[in-house]
Design brief:
This protein is α/β, with parallel strands linked by helices and 341 residues long. It has helices at residues 45-52, 79-86, 98-101, 108-119, 124-137, 154-165, 184-200, 214-220, 238-243, 248-255, 295-299, 321-328, 331-335; strands at 3-14, 17-29, 34-38, 61-63, 66-69, 72-73, 91-94, 172-176, 206-210, 223-228, 231-237, 305-308, 311-313. Helix 4 (108-119) crosses helix 5 (124-137), helix 5 (124-137) packs across helix 6 (154-165) and helix 6 packs parallel to helix 7. It is globular.
Amino acid sequence: MILEIENLKTYYKIEKGVVKANDGISLSIKENEVVGLAGESGCGKSTLIRTIIRLVPQSAQVTADKMNFMDQDILAMPEKDFREKILWQGIALVPQSAMNALNPVYRVGDQCTEAISAHTDYDKAECEQIVKRLFDTVGLQAGMMKAYPHEFSGGMRQRAMIAMSLLLSPALVIMDEPTTGLDVLVQERILRNIKEIRQKSESAVSILLITHDISVIAEMSDRIGIMYAGRLMESAESMELFNEPYHPYTLGLKNAFPSIKALDRELISIPGSPPNLIEDIPGCLFAFRCPFVIPECEKTRPPDLEIKPGHMVHCIRTDHVEEFRKLAGDKKTWQSSRSAT
């Protein structure tokens, strides 16, 4: 097991109260596995990333029953040890905005070699050889090492960031919206590059893929988790999640994305907006938008039920899933929810 997280809570204190950005998340990633996390904007995906790599502000309150990376407690680890032993060498990040992540007045190749030299004893020539090899792997010419970020296209910058994340052969690479803002052809190349890198890599590379695009998740992931309002609503193997979804929110997300098998199908959006995470909501956070809500949903926080081995659902009405699946494809079902009225 590469990463094990149990009951993670990341709270932010603000003037109006406490924002429960992550509220009891449990997640695990195995060796050489791709785990995708999908959900609406503001559901806590980015906070989860920042918590794992310890970039949340000092004012944040972070607690967890377990937060281990390769059997090391990274939550209790001193900051200096974490930055020297875990970052880059163990866990690397491909940030959402590649242009903002690169120093605009610093050559891209120099930024890469600096990351290597900061964590190893390699000389300049050895660092450059590593960068050249990885540039070639992601489809960039070695000569681009001397270029500045503004000389790169959006797709080239994204590939450069992927190369940077692999400089020290980390066991886990976190990718935050790696294809956002790119046209579909560049997206396809980026995803193909990621697959090829994993196949060519001498060591196992696990990936935590964060996105709101279910099509990207389906293309890349072995397992998928669906996040909503700071909680993990459902998680399962990719094919099982798409073929046998249990949570109403997962059913709603499926309706909102086009299918190549049913081109004439009307897309159905989920009415309403996620709840205010400052409020103390005792029951299911999706209850207000859920067309299948009953009074008990508003009073009781759903437990994490393991429906099948490896398939977790955060819902108390899993016994009615067959009925939900039939009704979820009808637009009128969602128009009848309280958030639509």
